[in-house]
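thoughts on these tokens:
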Amino acid sequence: MKPMGKTRRMLTVGLGGVALAAALTAPAQAHGNGEQHGDGRPAPAWQPTQTGTDARFRGLAAVSRTTAWVAGTKGRVLRTTDGGRSWRDVSPPGAGGLEFRDVEAFDRQRAVVLAIGEGEASRVYRTEDGGATWKESFRNPDPKAFYDCLTFFDHRHGLAVSDPVDGKYRILSTADGGRSWKVLPNTGMPEAQPGEASFAASGQCLVSSGPYDVWLATGGAATARVLHSADRGLTWTAAASTVPAGDPARGVFGLAFRDRTHGIAVGGDYRAGQASPRASEVTGNGGRGWLPAAAPVAAYRSGVAWLPHSRSAALAVGPTGTDATTDGGRTWRTVDTGSYDTVDCAPDRGCWAAGEKGRVARLAR
């Protein structure tokens, strides 16, 4: 890949949905600083946990209110099973030089992590015993490939995506829970735009919903795009994004779909101090078309997650704060000013965020 593209990609830089929606629209909202609502109830806020490391965690998998996995720099993988009161270092042996950017966890015992980088730096590891042991299940043999994100449709079927190789995105597929992988044919993949790539910023450049649908976020080219496949990555269609691009640092960074039709995209310009107008958008037709948010996120945001069991509430995070929506992504407002790179919510309404300097937090209930 081009040196500029490599620099950009490396970026070395709770409450239930209904309850959160009510809390965020109540008077006297707090901004993650311990304030209370007018009725005396604590405002929704991130509760930081002590991870004991300064690694930057861009990979996050929320299993439940009590169990979560994070993956980050220095080959570090951590797991908690007590709601963040303690974290166990379960990093794969010998992985200290790797950059983990995504983790997909099936439960407290089974997880798959992705290391990014050109050539053999891109790897996949799998554990079935809570991180006590790991098996390397994929090591990229192609120096032109650079894998960015993982997603799983179920406990068996999953995909990983590489930036374009010979003019098209490369898709890696597993049908056995990440134990083995194969490259899918690219005949159904549209041609990549000049300079187009995906961002390994939050583990959310490739996301799925249901048994077959998957979406891929792009940036770096003249136009940011969101690609969609309805057959687990065999054929794809591309839709133009309303998030500004036209620069290697700009585009769509994170996606979230609450079903196969309703989605949110966030992004912007990841460089500190750079403006990120129109940095969020929504779709109601499965990604065939995107509409800019009427009141978008306040700044560059790299991660986004729907609140479980809600049709309207979601959170978006980035280095300058957390924004919330209670109308399906049409309007956003800032509810916390702490730095986080990624966010994820579990079916039991446990929401987590992770980022720089070992920061991992759980949303207060």
About this structure: Residues 1-21, 25-41 have pLDDT under 50 and may be disordered.
